[in-house]
Design a protein that fits this description.
heterodimer; A: mainly alpha; 7 helices; 0% strand; B: mainly alpha; 85% helix; rod-shaped
């Protein structure tokens, strides 16, 4: 059994520290937004989790392509880890968006293009695990999973671009503002700093969780192999 | 003095959900890891006994 690498322990500590720093920047360092008040502070975790959510889905699609080329199960483990962690982070993104929308738009949910595409993306990746759970043969499961993440990955650029291409009430904070957006705000220097700290912190946490999840995937494969060996 | 709309309860709810979700996920990873290590030890023992 492999012992935990020292670099992973360091990364664990770094992740906890960076989460604390990101929370401090979001709750204390960033100024209070004039029109929305304190609820605007969820924005920093909203964009941070959205970033790692989308990053993981794209990485999973890339891992899927590599698996289809070289059939190396390590890329399947990488793909599963990326999808699982990103699904969790993207869930936080959606919930935080909904909490922000209640005072900003006076509703928890509306079928706006961004909200709809984000919900579809999340559902696509929840279905990924249902698909995998239904296939027993590891190679077939990996092959189907790879093709699925490749196709599912298309939903990511669509979700990202939809507020820039269509009329939507979701604000575009990075880049050009949408004319129809409600609850949009122009960020001050301190707000941008808090957002960048959040991006960095969630990236570190994502890498740390990925490493742990890939190790768990390795253990799962070993257990499956031994089960087969013992049962024969 | 500037006055802001009181939306702090939403902010608190948002951060509780964030930390709770991440906490549950990390806990699930810990439990899965622990269970897999146990399974592996048991299976390795079974494999060794089988060879004997």
């Amino acid at each position: 059994m492999q012992s935990k690498p020292i670099a992973l322990t360091i990364l664990d500590i770094l992740s906890v520290i960076s989460l604390g720093v990101a929370t401090y920047f979001a709750l204390v360092f960033a100024p209070t937004e004039l029109f929305m008040g304190q609820v605007q502070r969820v924005f920093y975790f909203h964009v941070g989790t959205a970033w790692v959510g989308m990053l993981g889905f794209i990485l999973a699609a890339i891992a899927g392509i590599i698996y289809l080329i070289n059939k190396d199960m390590r890329w399947d483990r990488f793909e599963v880890a990326a999808v699982e962690i990103s699904t969790m982070f993207f869930f936080i993104t959606i919930v935080l968006g909904s909490i922000w929308a209640r005072p900003a738009w006076n509703t928890w949910w509306t079928w706006d293009p961004r909200l709809t595409t984000a919900a579809i993306t999340e559902l696509i990746y929840i279905a990924y695990f249902m698909l995998r759970a239904g296939i027993e043969d590891p190679e077939k499961r990996a092959r189907f999973g790879a093709v699925y993440t490749l196709l599912g990955g298309i939903s990511v650029p669509i979700t990202f671009m939809v507020i820039r291409l269509f009329r939507t009430i979701h604000p575009v904070v990075i880049g050009n503002e949408s004319a129809a957006a409600q609850g949009g705000f122009s960020m001050s220097g301190d707000m941008v700093t808090a957002m960048l700290v959040s991006f960095a912190a969630f990236t570190i946490i994502f890498i740390d969780l990925m490493w742990h999840r890939i190790r768990i995937g390795g253990l799962q494969d070993k257990v499956e192999e031994l089960k087969l060996k013992v049962s024969m | 003095m500037e006055t802001y709309p009181d939306t702090s309860s939403y902010m608190v709810a948002g951060y509780i959900v964030s930390f709770l979700t991440m906490g549950i996920y990390v806990l699930s990873m810990y439990i899965r890891n622990r269970n897999l290590k146990r399974d592996l030890e048991t299976l390795e023992d079974m494999d060794t006994n089988k060879k004997k």
